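Let's practice the habit of predicting before peeking. Look at the sequence and jot down your guess about where helices and strands might fall. Then scroll down.
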Amino acid sequence: MATDYDEGDTAELYQKAKNTLPVYQVDTFSLLRLVGDVSGKKVLDIACGEGHFTRLLRQAGAAKAVGLDISRRMIELARQHEARQPLGIEYVVSDASTVVSPPENFDIVACTYLMVYARSRAELARMCAGLASRVRPGGRFVTINVNPNVYHYEPQPDYRKYGFEMRLADQAYEGAPIDFTVLVGDSGLHIENYYLPIEAYRSGLEAAGFIDVAVHQPVIPPDAVVAHEPGFWDELVERPVFSLIDCVKA
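Done guessing? Here is the structure:
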């Protein structure tokens, strides 16, 4: 069953995990690096959660930063942070799969772990259409997702030292669950994502009007390398649990 971030203390646990666990050092650095210079740009952070990445984009020089999430509790936490430390960020509760009309004109639309909630190509197509309606022609879409290759690693990696565990079905099929337990709180935070091959993501984005679709691997930030013993990150580098995609709106 898909994770409900409005249930119980799920949103708060995710917020804590984002700020404490090693794996999130890597995904944040990798996504910021791929997004690149945002100075003077209008940026939309989709699936923004409690605003972790949205704030970084604004602090990096975005002229306008908007965070969007389907979870009311996540947006509530983001707005609370904005009230304490104002950056001029707007946070919106909305479904990213909704096609907006008239289309929006963001220079960059970024998102973290959104497309992995699509259980079928039809769901993915709706999601990609909603994303495309928010990017101006010539603008970029950049995302980080669970790496579909996790279903093909032999043996399955042990990711616990990075702050999470992963469980898979016996074999890969479209819509197969990718179950994570994020090691935060007394019993951990359980997140269910779904498998689709990388070709499905590429096809879905291209059908929605994106071009130059490229896949990238994560990069370990230099400060995270020196903060841990030699070899600490080897498993994550050799069998990355996530990958990144960027493309341009035609």
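How did you do? The chain has a mean pLDDT of 95.
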